[in-house]
Write a structure and sequence with these properties.
Two copies of one chain form a homodimer.
Chain A (H helix, E strand, L loop, with lengths): L20 E6 L11 E6 L4 E6 L7 H12 L4 E8 L5 H19 L6 E8 L6 H12 L6 H8 L7 E9 L2 E10 L12 E6 L5 H14 L4 E2 L9 E6 L16 H21 L7 E9 L2 H12 L2 H8 L5 H10 L10 E4 L2 E5 L2 E2 L5 H8 L3 E7 L5 E8 L3 H8 L4
Parallel strand pairs in A: 4-5, 8-10, 9-16, 11-15
Antiparallel strand pairs in A: 1-2, 2-4, 3-10, 6-7, 7-8, 11-16, 12-13, 12-15, 13-14
Helix pairs in contact in A: 2-3, 5-6, 7-9
């Protein structure tokens, strides 16, 4: 954890234990950090798993293996390494991951494929196998810890620990979801990475869990951006231990499936927002809502074009209601748009409608809105019913300082 | 022109007159600048024109009109307004452009469609028709000026005037190309825009001139990026007066066509580099060469993904040979790539080969290379014969200061 906490930080919430989930941490010593850097999560037999992963084609061995592992749908343990991304490390990096899987599998007497591993941190340095194995051994012998401690341990350049929880009633049974996430700080030569883990005591059939996680991901993690750079290691995993005792959810026809899906989406959105709130150099949290697009997907792509525009992000940093830059970003998004139907507003006040600046546009309330920490941008394309909201942060001197003002 | 000149600036070159091209400037007073802001270029009867324009769908009226005008292939005049982009201004913006076209056409006794107009500067404010018409009248009565004066007058937040020239021998006749360009500074609430104009005394049939300009554009202007934000007004026009007396070039079968094409491409590349050298906050000029791609287009898209990555650009700003960030950018480009065949180098020294860091990688010469103003990044995808070079600048505190540290 960095010392300077993001001005957009949120306190870590109270989060109950999840039956069937035990957290432990240890110090593998991947970096000269003086703190624990290895998180071990033991999961009860029968735990279902689902996952979504980075689409970066230069992904890490952990991501390659994880993609295959979640297809089988069963998990007994998770190991998270902080300080070394193990990406772009060839066969040596893969060997270290397989060694961790074998070590934990022997301890739990389970197939190695049921042990998931994630790593973030330095790229291009193979994960040191001996440090990893000593760290795992220490974690297996450690006392259980709570969510906040685990959330701190998976972090790298994060400035605050991030967690979220929710409950739902499923067939008369209350189920709980607890989740932690890390991201998106980066420090040379480290690389920003988002790792998120959601745990629930609900019983959910793995394929349905995957369907729900993928759907939630499309509206949450896929709708945030800090700087448009896609990490090689991004991973979100959902684990369902089944200890709550509900009748297993197998499809949307199962009683309570909708409630569980809503709770899962809620947790994912909370986590996604926390990552943006810890975006490098972030001073403002920006929500961009695009309506009137030809489809929801199109609205999302237009929103991301705005959210990734350095000119829009610097304008917001400067408190400048520069709707011309929003017009530019809409126009370059590569999606259907009609300049003469386009409307743009800030904080609920339209600045331009139907392709022209409003004659009676009053900038005073907009300036007041932009002076705050939470900024809303509204874009109406005027073409259809498609709609999406994306979230980002502003682009400030802090981002440059974090990423340029040093030499490796 | 801004007072602080880019450290990457180049002196304005000696450029000869082009027969059939007369430059004049005037002050329309679009902004409170105390300098001329309207450039008028008169072209001899029979001048051929070709153009390439922004693909931003929220483009200005000037761009919409220009696209149609270059199809006819004939031009008698060009008017360039500095300080007002006239974008997102609806029918009132279009009326101002049509008024300028009519005024000049009456003066020259030519069709209004042969008068091209460009504007850059503030977005969302209709070009004031009365100021424009008074400015045009003053320019028509002004004495001719030279290339450097015109290059300064078309600029907005540029920090130095930009020009380039070349010669070629076409069927035994020496032809000359002279060109000026502006971009890519921006100051709130202005918008970065690139406007480039190439003038030649060669005789070139309009359709062939368009073919040559489009081809040169793909390898030059389309291969530069400062900040990934595509302007609503980008325009490059080529004018051929035919006064050199060569037999008109109609296709690559015409004697001297190859030489002319090479000279045109050379001028376009010079102009494109000058724009990058005036990129906002630029301290380093970066050339990224991608080889081994499945096609040249694919290589270009991978190169642009690297050139647009804020993490790569800040690493270069910090003099950091962070090849992990280059790997990340390759992986997110959406193009075919194989992590385990990927090689990355800086200034001719490979840092990673075939998906792994080199064991004997010596960072000393790379660090020395990155300490300079001219940085080369080499990427070999190891898949095919596709190749491209793209150019960009680093991302520094200067960029943030220019675009965020003010309020409109």
């Amino acid at each position: 954890m960095s010392e300077a906490v993001s001005p957009l930080a949120r306190p870590f919430p109270a989060m109950p234990p999840i039956s069937g989930v035990t957290l432990r941490i240890a110090r593998a010593g991947y970096k000269d950090w003086g703190r624990c850097d290895l998180t071990y999560v033991e999961l009860a037999p029968g735990t279902a798993v689902a996952g979504v992963f980075t689409r970066n084609v230069c992904c890490s061995s952990e991501v390659e293996l994880g993609r295959e592992q979640v297809k089988a749908g069963a998990a007994r343990a998770l190991v998270v390494n902080a300080g070394n991304a193990n990406a772009f490390t060839g066969y040596r990096g893969r060997e270290a991951v397989e060694a961790i899987m074998a070590q934990v599998a022997a301890h739990l007497d389970c197939p190695p494929a049921e042990v998931l591993v994630s790593s973030t941190g330095v790229i291009g340095v193979p994960l040191p196998k001996d440090k990893a194995q000593a760290g795992v051994a220490a974690a297996l012998a450690a006392a259980p810890c709570d969510w906040e401690v685990a959330a701190r341990t998976i972090g790298t350049t994060d400035t605050f620990p991030k967690g979220a929880s929710a409950q739902a009633i499923v067939g008369g049974v209350t189920v709980t979801l607890c989740a932690i996430i890390k991201g998106s700080g980066m420090i040379a030569p480290d690389m920003a990475t988002m790792l998120g883990y959601i745990f629930t005591d609900a019983a959910v059939e793995p394929r349905f869990l995957q369907e729900l996680l993928s759907a939630a991901n499309r509206e949450t993690f896929s709708c945030i951006t800090v700087d448009s750079d896609t990490s090689t290691s991004d991973t979100v995993l959902a684990f369902a231990t089944g200890k709550a005792g509900n009748a297993p959810l197998v499809s949307f026809d199962s009683p309570g499936a909708d409630a569980f899906a809503a709770a899962l989406r809620d947790v994912c959105r909370q986590l996604a927002h926390l990552v943006v709130r810890d975006g490098e150099g972030a001073q403002k949290f920006i929500a961009i809502t695009v309506s009137g697009a030809v489809s929801d997907d199109s609205a999302c792509r237009v929103g991301l074009a705005i959210a990734n525009s350095p000119l829009v992000k610097t304008a917001i940093a400067g408190g400048d209601a520069n709707w011309g830059r929003v017009v530019m970003a809409v126009g370059k998004a590569g999606e259907p748009a009609d300049r003469d139907r386009l409307s743009i507003g800030f904080g609920g006040v339209w600045a331009a409608r139907d392709g022209q600046p409003l004659a009676d546009y009053d900038e005073a309330p907009v300036a007041a809105h932009l002076a705050g920490q939470e900024v809303d941008i509204e874009v109406d394309l005027g073409l259809g019913e498609g709609r999406a909201t994306v979230w980002t942060c502003d682009l400030t001197h802090g981002y440059i300082s974090i990423n340029a003002d040093y030499r490796s």
